[in-house]
Design a protein that fits this description.
The chain is of the alpha/beta class. The protein has a single domain, classed as Rossmann fold, CATH 3.40.50.150. The protein has a 7-stranded mixed β-sheet. Strands 1-2 form a two-stranded parallel sheet.
Length: 273
């Protein structure tokens, strides 16, 4: 039996655990749409108050976090079929386990997060091999672009659950700064409408993250493509589109319908040109 891992749960650490626990719980379902063995194994090893952590998760929250990961996985796998020697950058990596679900054996992976978050990642998810690099920096420290180096074999960037916490001016600054420097790269991130921010903020507060607050709301991707001639839209994906229904409660299915009706949360897939 694997030795239990003890960690001190501060506010940052507990926040990082929520997506991990969500993926672990989805994996335990009889018919999971996201099968994340690594998250489940790590969750089993953690010596923490799991009941308290789970209490902070709603069923719709679990489904949303897992759906985001599932669709990003699909996009990464499609990218790696075309660019087997390409590079993947995960901004705001936290305790993300995308590498363990999607690695093709030849791609180069870069996980970027703030130093405190990366410290926990290094403890719980040590670097698995020489093709994986951890970068302890803010995404606004654009020297990470130098860290990843040549992108002639292709680059795919994911930013799960990060941008809605910044003001629109900050998101604009970030995207318009990196787009001309990373021509040819693709990028995917989740967004939320102005209407949806109100409901998600309620769930965030209910999960105990009282200091977390969503700042940026958007519905139309043209807002972003109009910021720069170097940004073009590949596609948008509405949350819960095509999701299997066997795992959800009736109340969760209703919440999903409301989400889709008001187009509250989406994934934007863009390309830098």
């Amino acid at each position: 039996m694997a030795e239990k891992i003890k960690i001190k749960l501060g506010r940052v650490q507990e926040t990082l655990l929520l997506p991990l626990v969500s993926r672990a719980k989805e994996t335990r379902y009889k018919h999971p749409f996201l099968n994340d063995v690594k998250s489940f194994e790590l969750y089993q090893q953690l010596d923490i108050d799991k009941r308290r952590i789970v209490r902070n998760l709603s069923d719709i929250g679990i489904q949303g976090l897992c759906y985001r990961a599932y669709k990003m996985d699909e996009a990464i796998k499609a990218f790696l079929k075309k660019h087997p020697n390409g590079k993947i950058v995960d901004i705001g990596a936290g305790l993300d386990t995308t590498y363990y679900r999607c690695d093709n054996g030849t791609a180069l992976w870069y996980d970027l997060d703030m130093p405190d978050s990366m410290a926990l990642r290094k403890q719980l998810l040590p670097i698995p091999n020489q093709r994986v690099t951890y970068i302890s920096k803010s995404m606004f420290d654009y020297s990470w672009i130098d860290d990843i180096g040549d992108i002639s074999n292709g680059l795919f960037i994911t930013i799960p659950g990060v941008l809605p916490y910044f003001k629109e001016a900050e998101v604009k600054e970030f995207l318009t700064n990196i787009a001309p420097k990373l021509k040819g790269a693709e990028i995917m991130f989740d967004v939320i409408s102005h209407f949806g921010r109100f409901f998600v903020d309620i769930r965030i507060k209910a999960a105990g993250m009282k200091d977390a607050h969503l700042e940026w709301g958007i519905l139309n991707p043209a807002t972003i493509t109009n910021w720069s001639e170097h940004i073009e839209l590949v596609r948008t994906i509405q949350f819960f589109q095509g999701i299997k229904k066997s795992n959800q409660r009736v109340s969760t299915r209703i919440a999903m319908r409301i989400n889709k009706f008001f187009n509250m949360t989406q994934l934007f897939h863009l390309k830098f040109v």
